[in-house]
Design brief:
41% of the residues lie in helices and 12% in strands. The protein is an alpha+beta fold and 121 residues long. It has a three-stranded antiparallel beta sheet with strand order 1-2-3. Strand 1 and strand 2 form a beta hairpin. The N and C termini lie far apart (60 Å).
């Protein structure tokens, strides 16, 4: 009996591995898009995919969309955080800060000049 269970588990694991790695249907099991990231010392480079937003990236990487301020603080070259473009390389911290950082004063002035209605923490 033990031999049958071991063989079943081995076969099931092998079949599952083959299916998830080689099958075009694997996307139906795990629809998560492949994230393009490259580690560089104390930070990670996130390559923006079509349709991504700064809050979506903050949520995907840090686990909370309120970290959008941290993402923008670390990438102050972004002129409008609500319009980011595909293939941009964003620098993200290797470690999630204990809480989202307040927006840098210069970036906050940029938002106020644009009369943007946003949720700040």
């Amino acid at each position: 009996m033990k031999n049958i269970v071991t063989r079943f588990l081995s076969t099931t694991f092998f079949a599952f591995t083959i299916f998830t790695v080689t099958s075009p249907l694997a996307a139906l099991i795990d629809p998560q898009p492949e994230v393009l990231m490259k580690e560089t010392g104390s930070s990670v480079i996130w390559t923006v995919e079509k349709g991504e937003t700064i809050t979506g990236i903050a949520n995907a990487y840090y686990g909370d969309d309120s970290y959008w301020t941290t993402v923008w603080n670390d990438n102050p070259w972004i002129k409008d955080p609500w319009n980011i473009e595909e293939d941009w390389a964003l620098e993200l911290r290797n470690r999630t800060p204990k809480e989202a950082h307040a927006l840098d004063a210069k970036l906050l002035r940029t938002l106020k000049k644009a009369n943007t209605s946003i949720r700040l923490r």
